[in-house]
Amino acid sequence: MIAFVALALLSSGSPSLPAAARSYVRDVLKVETYQAAQADLNGDHRPEIFVYATGRETCGSGGCNLYVLSPRKGRYQIVLRASVTQLPVRRLASATRGWRDIGVFVSGGGAQPHEARLRFNGKRYPGNPTMAPASGNPRGEVLIGDTP
Question: In the record, which residues are listed under signal peptide (predicted)?
Fold first, then answer.
């Protein structure tokens, strides 16, 4: 059974985001403006960090970049680096290979607007949500909503 972890919406520089995660976002991802949340995806009781980059350099007409960072031995590993994502970002009740599925909204480029279900492949989540199947709107909770 996958445990739930309290979720918190965060803004850039929020003291609620672990200092190491804030540094990683700033120094490695080079993201200054973002919304963030924490949620356990793999049942290890250590929350993954969701970073929805909101700056002009990380957003386009199809949406913004979304990153999910997983804590590994005192460091972070990127398990999702997706472009053209739109809000809301949801942690779905379904799971693939022991990791919870992620729902993101996609539209534009001739695609019908829908929520895409991103499934873990054993190493990471797919980077292009426009190629992922529709979620079918299963149960889940909003991690990062339409408004910060």
Answer: 1-21
